[in-house]
Design a protein that fits this description.
Layout (H helix, E strand, L loop, with lengths): L2 H9 L44 E2 L7 H9 L3 E2 L5 E2 L2 E2 L2
Parallel strand pairs: 1-2
Antiparallel strand pairs: 3-4
């Protein structure tokens, strides 16, 4: 998905982008609050100026631990989709 496709879908009131490949999509200053971005590929995406309050993320490719902590601090909700206890996973 490129920036224009994302914008077109967003303007059509779509807020579920779960599983989308957003690699290198320009999201500077975007308001992604309340959007579902779970399992999206965010490789190369700069989210430092993006509004993310109550945005759902988790299992995202391309997000560093520092980025995840920053997004949580700014109100994003991280959901884990795989079960993991004591280093063991169901996958």
């Amino acid at each position: 998905m490129d920036t224009n496709e994302l914008l077109r879908r967003y303007l059509a009131k779509e807020r579920n982008f779960q599983g989308a490949n957003l690699t290198q999509v320009t999201l500077n200053r975007a308001n992604l609050s309340y959007n579902n971005l779970s399992n999206t590929n965010l490789t190369g995406v700069d989210l430092t100026i993006t509004e993310v309050e109550k945005a759902r993320l988790g299992e995202n490719e391309g997000l560093s631990e520092a980025s995840q902590l920053d997004l949580q601090r700014r109100g994003a909700i991280f959901e884990m989709t795989s079960f993991s206890v004591g280093g063991m996973s169901d996958s």
